[in-house]
Every structure is written in structure tokens, then in C-alpha cells.
Amino acid sequence: MTTTAIEVEIERPDLPPLPQPPIADLRFLEEVAAATAGVSRLEMCIQCGTCGGSCPPSADMDHTPRQLFAMIRAGMRDEALRSNTPWICVSCYHCVVRCPQGVHIADVMYTLKSMAIRAKLYKDSTAPDFSQTFVDFVENYGRSFEFGLATRHYLKHYPLRLPGMVPKGFGMLARGRMDLTPHRIEGLDQFRAILARAKELEAAS
Fold it and tell me: Which of 4, 20, 48, 170 has the smallest set of CB atoms within 10 Å of its CB?
């Protein structure tokens, strides 16, 4: 008589139960995808590594984009938000152009930076402040003001390094690559209205 698996379990209750396959916790993945503007396609990542191979500053990242997305898929929320990878991203979109799955990698990086700031889990304490300074200039003038951005950032975080930046700054001024005073764009009121509406939509999402 053939003994069935059920009969074996009844006859040998001392046997350990078969291990169950792990259930992936995709809540963090879904949260990141939902918070990313447009369609992130993050769930389509096939871990090919094309993004990391296409990224100019990837050598300075503590995780390649591929590794970071694997962490997100694994539900490693704190580890992913502490990664310096989103802050190293220069938004060149080279990875986006080359991704075979069409994942909007750079947009996901923006999302992770925003989430890291809200959760206070970022490593580089100067990066969020630098981003906020940039946003302040854009909101006030409609564009970036490089001289003010660099000066304010270095005075606040690296005052002892500022003298070493003077020769480079003079060189840029002499070549017309940087202005001493900011210039407002035309139609600044309309631009501010667009930003205000974007903030309303973000708050409502």
C-alpha cells in the first residue's frame, strides 16, 4: 500500500514542516512607484545593470541603480533611503535612454531624495540644503543663480574652502559663464503660478 504525504505527516508529527517560500513585500516598491511622477515602470527592472554601466558618476555611488532597485523590491526601505545614490545622480538621463525596459530611473531618484528628506534618513546633510537653496533661487528668479548658489552653500557648509574657489570663480566671470547678480525671467508671475499649482497637486496626491 502506498503511503500518501498526508499519512506520513500524520504518522510522523515530529518531522519539521517544509519551509515556505518567502513572500516578497512589495509595499515599498509600490509606494515609490506611486510617488514618482508619471509612470515609473520600476517594477519592470530586469537587473541587467545597463543603468550603472551608463552612469557617469556611478563610481561614487554606494549602490548602483540596479542594486538600489533590488533593495526597493526587497522592502529595504531604510537602507534604500540612506543610500547616497540618488544624491550622486546628475539627472543626465543617459540611463533612461539606454534602459531596455524603459524604467524612468532619474525620476525615481528624485522620488527617493524627496522621501529621504521627509524621513530624515539621508547621509549627506548638505545635499538637501543645496537642493533647497537651488529651489529658492528658482522660485525667486525663475532660474538658477550660480554665483549665489555656490557662495551661499560654501559659506554655510564649507567656509574654509571658499577662498580656494575664488580663482575658479573669477575665471568663470571673466569668460561670461557666470553673473554677479541674478536676473529674473520674463513672465515670472505665471511661472510661480505653475509652481504653486504643482505643489497643490503634490499635496493632494
Answer: 20
